[in-house]
Amino acid sequence: MTKTRPSKSSTPPPFFEGGLGGVSATSQLAAASKSPSIPLQKGGSKQSPKLRSARVELVPQFHDLDPLNIVWHGNYPRYFEHARTALLQDIGYDVPQMQASGYSWPVIELNIRYAKPIGYLQKIIVEATLVEWQNRLKVQYEIRDAASDEKLTQGHTVQVAVAIASGEMCFVSPAILFEKLGVPLP
Questions:
Q1: Contact indicator for 60, 119 with CB cutoff of 8 Å
Q2: CB under 8 Å to 114, separation ≥6 — which residues?
Q3: Nearest to 186 by CA among 131, 138, 135
């Protein structure tokens, strides 16, 4: 099959700024993602799902700290991974389902913006929101203090589908992803 680059799609919706009320130690879907309706995008006939989000509560341990007694910057991607895993589990397309469908989804981009440090045993909420899915998975993250709701960190990751059998990168997300999100193919 010949692969061609798809045309650029419309800009994704802005980052989801949902509240953190009712957060438990397990992941939860944001209320917006529970709606089965699929709204039409403004000015076009393409459909897109509401943003899907998941949240996890984490408590940094002593081994997460650097010599300054704050969370070492290299641990933040691991915190993002906890929330992204919860998000993918919520849509039913985590690593085992990805592998079973014949695709791997390596991270090809990671961006982190540190606003305030995280301290030892400081309860935090990490939220992952799926903002792009047609040609890649782009997940935005926000880390907030669980007690004050103060934003501590934000960032994003980008993942692309790679066919396991051939090792080739896909320029359009595979149909299984659209099926799991409950949206029509582009």
A1: yes
A2: 73, 76, 152, 153
A3: 135
- The residue behind tokens 């081994």 is 63
CB count, 10 Å around CB of 45? Answer: 6
pTM score, whole prediction: 0.74
Task: Measure the CA–CA gap between 130 and 127, rounded to whole angstroms.
Answer: 10
Question: How do residues 37-71 score in pLDDT, each as one tens digit?
Answer: 233 233 333 334 578 999 999 999 999 999 999 99
Has residue 103 got a pLDDT over 50?
yes
* Residue range 88-110: mean pLDDT, rounded: 96
- Position 186 scores a pLDDT of 83
For 1-150, strand residue ranges (E) read 28-29, 52-58, 103-104, 107-114, 124-132, 137-145
Look at phi and psi of residue 91 and say left if phi exceeds 0, alpha if psi is from -120 to 50, else beta: alpha
Strands (E), 23-89: 28-29, 52-58
The Cα angle at residue 125 between residues 120 and 127, in degrees rounded to 5:
140
Q: Among 50, 57, 52, which Cα is nearest to 21's?
A: 57
Q: Which two tokens stand for residue 134?
A: 């047609």
Mean pLDDT of 80-94: 97
Q: Return the closest-CA partner of residue 112 out of 136, 78, 86.
A: 78
pLDDT value for 5? 37
